[in-house]
Description:
Layout: E1 6-7, H1 13-18, E2 22-25, E3 32-39, E4 43-52, E5 55-64, E6 69-75, E7 83-92, E8 95-104, E9 107-115, E10 122-128, E11 142-146, E12 149-158, E13 163-171, E14 177-183, E15 192-202, E16 205-214, E17 219-227, E18 233-238, E19 254-261, E20 265-275, E21 280-289, E22 295-300, E23 308-315, E24 320-328, E25 333-341, E26 347-353, E27 359-367, E28 373-383, E29 386-388, E30 391-395, E31 418-420, E32 427-431, E33 440-446, E34 452-459, E35 463-467, E36 474-482, E37 485-494
Antiparallel strand pairs: 1-2, 2-30, 3-4, 4-5, 5-6, 7-8, 8-9, 9-10, 11-12, 12-13, 13-14, 15-16, 16-17, 17-18, 19-20, 20-21, 21-22, 23-24, 24-25, 25-26, 27-28, 28-29, 28-30, 31-32, 32-35, 33-34, 33-36, 36-37
Amino acid sequence: MRLFIIIVSLMCFGQAFAQGAFYYSHIQPYSNHPFSIAESNDGFLVVGNNISNGHSNGFIMMMDKKGDVKWDKIIEDSVSDNQEQYRAVIYHKGFFYVGGFRRIENNRKKKLLKINPMNGNIIESKIFGDDQVLAGDNLIEDICPNKEGFLIAASGFDSTSMSTVAQLIQVDLDFNILWERQYSADISSMHFSDRIEKISSMKNGFLLIMNSLDVSEWQTNYYILRTDNEGNEIWRKSMLNYQSSSTFENTILSFNSATTFKQNKVITLFSIDNVTDSTYSQNLVLIEFDENGNEIFYKKYPENDEGIGPCDLFSDDNNIYILGRQEVTPPYYSQLYAAKLDSEKEFLWNRHYGEQDIAELYFCGTLTSDGGVLIGGRDLHFNFGSPYYNSIIVKTDCEGNTEWNYESCMSPELDEVNIFPNPFSNYINIHIPKLPEKSEVKINLYNTVGKLVDNLVYNETDVIQISTSNYAKGLYHCIIEVNGAVVANKKIVKAE
């Protein structure tokens, strides 16, 4: 089943399409639902599910960097009762790894896939997990690469408490499980359904977001958990009705999202909803915690009558990004939303994207190697009382535009090798444009006294991300070779 999409640009669509920024929406009712997006050397993979005749099948779509669909697939099961849904995707060492679930005879199992980025063929798959007992079991929500392979954020059934518990699972690249950790709001209780929904790398460990549903009260709480590299919990903080220690205001904060910042700190986003009989407004609040979970920064932003709904928080160490949905007034409809803040937590820009008078919902987003963002969602229509939805993909430049701004943003067509961010903190990105096929890329990093700090080799990889969390603060020389020839020799600085 082939995807047919057209571009509906918010600005000049010809320029946007040519320069790697765009707004896509299906003009016909289409049942593909995007849940996660990852970037590779050649483009972006969108994964989710396709609903047809009441059945949910896996959905994958590959777009190039300009937004053209290279291929798409709906992975149907031969048994009509079996259903699949893909919730997470990463690009790692030349392949896409996709996580989700598969329902087999009313029992849901975790599912991992290894996918060829050239054609979408499944190279390897694994189904695992105990038989489902409760509704939230056996669901993969996020995947994070590390030295051993990758970590899986998931949920599973605990036979001791007879409840759904959050899981962090370490697997190697062949999908062998190396270790597993369980977390719960209350392991002794049968009234909770917990899952890990997001993993962020930190210095010497990870930050986890745990979603916890109190079944008896039907109330959801979120926890942020700090772990070491083996998943052992160091500290946790409850986000339910959080009260800041940095202000004397007795204000209940509603948690939205969290991410790591500057290697070992945590940024959290909250909202304050101000509701009366006739008006609604919202204040956003950013709170920063140090590596020990102590609150060290609080900022309440001015009141706004266009509130931000479900969203994700991202950071590239120098900047903070909010990707989600915003209520637009009048006449009260929602659009996809993106915002960028500097390291001092001041807004640099914020935008919303979409058509008027249509409810548009956010489901996934990611930062892209050219300094922009990519957002996935869907809209909602009513046709003579029958609802249907269309999937949406938005790609922006570094200032949130859907028409590329060459004056302010790195051009996706530049011939020069780009290393960013610079100064850097937790990682650096290297973009090598127009890399020939079957090329070997060598990267040598030297400190100020000429000592080799890192020596890395990649094959046919033009977008490279290097973890620098273990580097010392200071100046480095980065020398990049392609097939033995030096193509770049640049100075870069680790700020913290």
